[in-house]
Amino acid sequence: MRKYHQNKESIYPYHEWKIVEDEFRPEYNHRNETIFALGNGYIGLRGTFEEGYSGDPKTTTPGTYINGVYESEPIYYGEFIPKMPEVGQTMVNLADWKIIRLKVEDEWFDMLKGQLEEYQRVLDLKRGVLQRTLVWTSPKGRKIAVDIQRCISLTDQHRAVIKFSVTPLNFSGQLIFSSEVNGDVQNYHHLREKALKVVKTEVNEDQGLLIQETNNTKIAIAFAIDHCFKSSAKDFSFECENITRENEIAIKYIWYGKEGQSYQLEKYISFYTDLDVSREELETVVKREVSEAKKEGFEILLNKQYQFLKDYWNEVDVKIEGDLALQQGVRFNAFHLLQSCGRDGRTSIGAKGLTGEHYEGHYFWDTEIYVNPFFLYSQPEFVKKLLLYRYNILDKARAKAKLMGHRGALYAWRTINGHEASALFEGSTTQYHINAAIVYAIHKYVEATDDIDFLLNYGAEIIFETSRCWADRGGFIPLKGNKFCINEVCGPDEYKPGVNNNCYTNYMARFNLQLGVKVARMMEEEYPDKFKALAEKIGLKSEEIEYWQRCADEMYLPFNEDLGIHPQDDSFLYKEELDVDSLSEEDIPLVRNWHPLNIWRYQICKQADVVLLMFLLGDLFDLKTKKANYDYYEPRTTHDSSLSACIYSIIASEIGYRKDAYDYFMQTARLDLDDYNNNTHEGIHAACMAGSWMCVINGFAGMRVYDGKLYFNPYLPEGWTGYQFSIRFRGRKLNVYVKKDQVNYTLVEGNDLEFYHCKKKVKLKTGEIKQMKVKG
Ligand code: BGC
């Protein structure tokens, strides 16, 4: 195994439920902005400081983003290529609404000046609150204690609150809180022009309003703030000053602070866009929301947050006994996934969640193949919404297919609004496999939930339109034995674009086509009216369905008898070999350091490709084949994509390579926390985070669902004393607790359940616990 990440020491003490920063070190500031980011699937805020940051501007990216709010700019191509997207889509950095600056007599509070003691910042995964406490002595010797809590509501998606407390410790004197919303912001990456203009500012006593609008996409975003100022001091009074400028609003609280007394500002924030409510209502709605938040108050908001998270952890938590670092890693990941997940059917999950501008906030296949499984077996309703998003952009996928000269629908490789947003077709449009990824996710969702209505009303249309696209995209090639071949594609391995018969793509396309036939036949038989209506709507003919069957039956599925492996594509085995272990740290990732032609010509893979197929359609391959493919591709894979290691870990578990499985899991579980790729500052790696869950559940516990049946094949990784998780499947909740030589299966909720433990059928009644032996 190539040691592609040098395991780094953690800068956070290991803790079961918290991420703690004990010392403020500016060299980690940028990374920590991602680690301590908060969000709720609707809005995200990087972990920047309320008072701002006076350090090196290269080490800070103050950012706040709303899922689905983007700006478009023309894409300039060096040379003309027909049918390429004309405009991009970039998630916009919005008004900075978290600002609370503190003035202590004539000095502004700034952690980079004066002296800092007792500093601690804690992200509490149970409470969903970010808290910073410290004692600061100003350059002129004034000492204050500060306590700041920040919370973005997970229950009320349009609300957030910050509570900022200050206590003068060695003086009495004038203090000022300046609570601001600054609309004079811009993106740090990708956009050439400023995306936003401020169209309205208003301040009135404790309340303020700022409305922005994107220049080209014309999305309006409104922020309302309201405040509550309190103190422990008796006979305390303050003055309030309202300021509106062209691009910002500020409300200043000025008071005389007494030594030893504490003063607190609660800042309530609400945010809405005209994608949520009409433009006319926007102002009223956002103001009403913030007033309600204030009325409800800080304690209730935090209490609701805690209750929400209690339920969440009850569903998703993976308990690891015997390794605190990994425990912390998987919980941190599960927390960030929740924060990233769009839940309105209009948005999805960006590759970086809502924590950074890299990848421009785009949604990829990462959602369907990596993140969906994490939510599917605990919060299936989230997955339904994510799939509804795909349904809602189906027309755009139809348009893309048309543009490309194909029938049916072709989903964009990277997008926010449904249209293709990539200017690089080699890495995007070539990845036709995204169509199959979406269909695979629909199938998995219906299989795990029995939500037949979803299939009939939404899923089927996607399945049919993508089947159409595959049937149109491939052809029967005489020199390939008249088999159905799909040429000029890129599989998951982005280091091999423009290849013929990518094995992964062909298998997944076949899966897609077979499902198309199956669902059409099932609907014809069991829901004839629904089928007729849908067939009419999309002009589906029975000859077409027969043709899908023929394409699937005749699909070219590459296999090399001599090596006993599936060649990744027609040319892969004919390329030069390159020793991946010989690559230096300067070479890696190749995508950033080598000319593409030098990457494409070798037998090297960026990420799991055939090996991913061995996992997704695992019932089609025997153990020997899985092992042979793993042995072949593993030494040829650089894992330059963070989507790779988890898949290798899962297959390594299955074929009994436990050390590899563990090592690859280690590269996954704390990738962001320990900044293995030196790029956490750019934002989280959402797919990899979900991959860490898969390593445990699909890897160590060997969970698979084949043909509607649930299988486990668990073992305990060395050094652990146990691990435990629950999954929801077809209305049941099953708890799985793996210990040294045994596993306990408990049916916590739902009707009797039948599943397989190490190929043996097990039946459980509600509430029943069964103890089984675990392979040594
Ligand atoms: C990977 C893709 C992935 C994208 C976004 C790329 O580096 O190769 O598979 O979809 O990142 O995470």
From TrEMBL:
Domain Glycoside hydrolase family 65 C-terminal: 703-764
Gene3D superfamilies attached to this UniProt entry: 1.50.10.10, Glycoside hydrolase, family 65, N-terminal domain, Maltose phosphorylase, domain 3
UniProt KW keywords: Glycosyltransferase, Hydrolase, Transferase
GO BP term, pick one: trehalose catabolic process
Residues forming the catalytic site: E494
Residue ranges of every copy of the Glycoside hydrolase family 65 N-terminal domain listed in the record: 21-274
InterPro entries: 6-hairpin_glycosidase_sf, 6hp_glycosidase-like_sf, Gal_mutarotase_sf_dom, GH65_N, Glyco_hydro_65_C, Glyco_hydro_65_M, Glyco_hydro_65_N, Malt_Pase/Glycosyl_Hdrlase
Family according to the record: Belongs to the glycosyl hydrolase 65 family.
Record's protein name: Glycoside hydrolase
UniProt organism field: Anoxybacter fermentans
